[in-house]
Amino acid sequence: MSEHNRGEREALCQAPVGVFDSGVGGLTVAREIMRNLPEERIVYFGDTARVPYGSKSKDTVIRYSRQIIRFLKTQGVKAIVIACNTASALALEEVEKELDLPILGVLKPGARVAAKTTRNKKIGVIGTESTINSHMYDRFIQAQDPEISVYGKACPLFVPLVEEGWLKDPVTEEVARRYLDELMHQGIDSLILGCTHYPLLRSLLRRITGESVTLVNPAYETAKELESLLKEKGLANPGGGTDGADRYQFFVSDAADKFKHFANSILPYDIETTKKINIEEF
After folding, report:
1. Among residues 3, 86, 105, 134, which one has the fewest Cβ atoms lying within 10 Å of its Cβ?
2. Annotated catalytic, 195?
3. Both 226 and 97 in a single domain?
């Protein structure tokens, strides 16, 4: 390899990974990438002006995803993670065809692990209405093992409760017990947290399900899949690039201060600035 080509390859490896979500939920994916791939840089976009995606049509979610991908490409990203279950379910297959960068969503990694870990072949999935109604988790899980039964439950109140910070509130616990009652009666032994907000409710959900149910966190599984993908494509950052404020950059379409406050409550690294952009321009 010539010096010029080697230099280009090094620059590409040090380019950031683009991560996007409908709002703050995808920060659970960013958190797992920070923990498991500490050398990687991240450009995160939260579509806080247009959240939630869970009640939007497929066409709308695809249009939003295309705009965000166009923005992330202006930031020189080397790969993209759709850190949103709804966009992964409704838009990934469409945008993947149009993109010249590696891209992955959060559904397949979670589905794969749940299919491997279930013992009684009964898996529960909780998510937004769009994710559950898409039946994409069912499709991916049954592609691994057609004998597995998948029970989906939409939990639309979880997102506003998480964003309100009511992670351990009795109200949230009562709502969660009502949502999960049906799934527990089905005798599930694995539960996929099929929305990126839900890992923040993990301890509360664990209390309700008990130790016999495996909680599958697609955020962690997605970070591990990203690690494999970057190695396979020769894009993993060997380190020695920028650090500090330049390592992680955050953009939103609205309410930058509120986003920053929430991000600093859950990330292992304090973010100093969040930039608001007009995503409709892309």
Report:
1. 3
2. yes
3. yes
Picking from 198, 93, 96, the residue whose alpha carbon sits closest to that of residue 140 is 93
Q: Summarize pLDDT for 153-176 with one digit per residue, the tens.
A: 999 999 889 988 899 999 999 999
DSSP-assigned letters across all residues of 10-64: HHHHTSPEEEEESSSTTHHHHHHHHHH-TT--EEEEE-TTT---TTS-HHHHHHH
Regarding whether 70 and 154 lie in a shared domain, the answer is: no
Which range of residues forms the domain containing residue 38?
Answer: 3-105+221-281
Q: Flag whether the pTM goes above 0.85.
A: yes
Identify whether 13 is a catalytic site residue: no
Q: Identify which of 225, 252, 260, 241 has the alpha carbon closest to the alpha carbon of residue 50.
A: 252
How many independent structural domains does the chain possess? Answer: 2
Instruction: Supply the CATH number for residue 181's domain.
Output: 3.40.50.1860
Is 23 within 8 Å of 46 (Cβ atoms)?
Answer: yes
Stated length of the chain = 282
Please state the separation of Cα 97 from the chain's center in Å: 20
Q: Using a CB cutoff of 8 Å and minimum separation of 24, what contacts does 3-12 make?
A: 9/234, 12/78, 12/235
- Co-location of 96 and 228 in the same domain: yes
**Catalytically annotated residue among 33, 34, 159, 195:** 195
Q: What is the pLDDT of residues 65-118, one digit of tens each?
A: 999 999 999 999 999 999 999 999 999 999 999 999 999 999 999 999 999 999
Q: Where are the alpha helices (DSSP H) in the chain?
A: 3-13, 27-36, 58-74, 85-90, 92-98, 107-117, 129-134, 136-144, 158-163, 170-185, 202-209, 218-232, 256-266
CB 13 within 8 A of CB 74: no
The phi, psi pair for 138, rounded to 5°, reads -55, -45
Mean pLDDT of the chain: 93
Catalytic residue among 13, 37, 77, 84: 84
